């Protein structure tokens, strides 16, 4: 069983990359997701492929508090499903070094760890290096391949500056600085067959950022402008320091999916027919009461301080 870890901070685009990897490589790996908190909204994207075996590890962070349970889960997958490939998508706030260390405990026989992949969005590179250095730098240092995501509209100058900053922490990683969506099949096949031989760089401390999650069932917004206002206010930190927000809701009898990360958001229609709608906000010092009021508004108009105009809505998904 070859294990590929696809790491990345909250909202970097791990699930989107995994979906693309599977489609381009033609492989059918088992996928183990360690979603942050108790919700797994992102896995719905992968579950569209009925042939995939997707398992959700919802008992805590696989890099730290539940590491023994995580290792036992890997062994159980190996014994019961005997997959050729297993993709592990850890929580965005997990330390990659701890995940690799845990997997290394069972890399014997036909269990092999592949070169870890890090999905990194350069939009918030400076901010996350400052705000969450323990997690962010650890992920960079221990990645064998670093794939820059969401760079379609970035300038060559910005991309080169980001590469220079990343190289300060990891000079040996291969940095993919062109949109991976256009890579040929052989690129994805190589990812699934390159054994990890890099030295583990580990900090003995396991400091997890004080990031919390707030979930809301069946939000009640009356029109798309209310959702846009809500997301604009979220970007302005009016509900707390929110790093990621995502969810689905019904507006005018249409199911709408939204995703907010890296100081931008996307709103798209979805054909998902799940009966329950859910919204999730992840960050620090989240004002649950204020968010609850906005998400369950019925008769009053949303009034967001500082909301002047909508710059743009990116009609694409960053899941």
**Annotation, overall tally of beta strands:** 13
Strand content: 15-25%
**Rounded mean pLDDT score:** 85
The CATH topology of the largest domain: Rossmann fold
H-E string: EHEHEHEHEEHHEHEHEHEEEEH
Q: Please tell me the total number of domains.
A: 2
* CATH architectural arrangement of the largest domain: 3-Layer(aba) Sandwich
pLDDT < 50 runs, ≥5 residues:
297-319
Please state the oligomeric state of the protein chains shown: single chain
Distance between the termini: 26 Å
The level of helicity is 25-40%
SS element count, helices: 10
Report on this model:
This protein has helices at residues 14-25, 43-46, 67-80, 96-104, 125-131, 133-141, 156-169, 185-191, 224-235, 288-295; strands at residues 2-7, 30-33, 53-56, 85-89, 112-113, 117-121, 145-149, 174-176, 212-217, 241-251, 254-261, 264-269, 278-284. Helix 2 (43-46) links the parallel strand 2 and strand 3 (53-56). Helix 1 packs across helix 8, helix 3 crosses helix 4 and helix 5 crosses helix 6. The longest helix is centred in the first third of the chain and has 14 residues, at 67-80. It is built from ten helices and 13 strands. The strands form two sheets. Strands 1, 2, 3, 4, 5, 6, 7 and 8 form an eight-stranded parallel sheet that branches. With 319 residues, the chain is an alpha/beta fold. It has two domains: 2-191, 3-Layer(aba) Sandwich (Rossmann fold), CATH 3.40.50; 212-295, Hypothetical Protein Yjia, Chain: A,domain 2 (2-Layer Sandwich).
């Amino acid at each position: 069983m070859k294990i590929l870890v696809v790491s990345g901070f909250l909202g970097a685009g791990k699930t989107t990359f995994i979906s693309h990897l599977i489609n381009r490589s033609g492989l059918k790996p088992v996928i183990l997701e360690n979603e942050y908190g108790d919700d797994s909204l992102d896995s719905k994207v992968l579950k569209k492929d009925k042939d995939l075996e997707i398992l959700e590890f919802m008992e805590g962070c696989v890099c730290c508090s539940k590491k023994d349970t995580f290792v036992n889960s890997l062994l159980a997958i190996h014994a019961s499903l005997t997959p050729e490939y297993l993709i592990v998508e850890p929580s965005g706030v997990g330390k990659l070094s701890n995940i690799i260390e845990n997997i290394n405990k069972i890399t014997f026989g036909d269990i092999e760890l592949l070169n870890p992949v890090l999905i990194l969005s350069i939009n918030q590179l400076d901010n996350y290096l400052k705000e969450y250095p323990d997690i962010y730098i650890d992920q960079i240092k221990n990645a064998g391949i670093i794939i820059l995501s969401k760079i379609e509209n970035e300038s060559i100058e910005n991309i080169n500056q980001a590469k220079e900053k990343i190289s300060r922490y990891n000079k040996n990683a291969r940095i993919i600085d062109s949109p991976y969506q256009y890579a040929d099949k052989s690129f994805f096949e190589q990812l699934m067959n390159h054994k990890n031989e890099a030295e583990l760089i580990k900090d003995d401390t396991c400091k997890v950022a004080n990031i919390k999650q707030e979930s809301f069932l069946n939000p009640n917004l009356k029109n798309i402008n209310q959702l846009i206002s809500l997301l604009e206010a979220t970007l302005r930190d009016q509900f707390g320091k929110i790093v990621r927000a995502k969810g689905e809701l019904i507006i005018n009898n249409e199911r709408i999916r939204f995703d907010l990360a890296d100081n931008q958001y996307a709103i798209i229609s979805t054909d998902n027919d799940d009966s329950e709608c859910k919204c999730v906000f992840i960050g620090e010092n989240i004002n649950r009461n204020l968010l609850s009021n906005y998400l369950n508004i019925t008769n009053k108009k949303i009034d967001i301080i500082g909301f002047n105009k909508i710059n743009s809505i990116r009609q694409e998904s960053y899941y």
